[in-house]
Amino acid sequence: MVIYRYMSNWKLVAAQLILSIAVLKFMPALQMVIVTLMIIFIGARFNADSDRLFR
Q1: DSSP state of 55
Q2: Domain locations along the chain
């Protein structure tokens, strides 16, 4: 599963965690937009069923 491979890569998870903490500290209102975009990107990139929606 691709999401498991992403979550097991400690460099990517650490970078995402550091970025999330920095955004929460300096731009808290932007956090909702970033989380929404992350959900859309990860869902579209790693979900095989999402390809069927656009065909």
Answers
A1: -
A2: 2-53
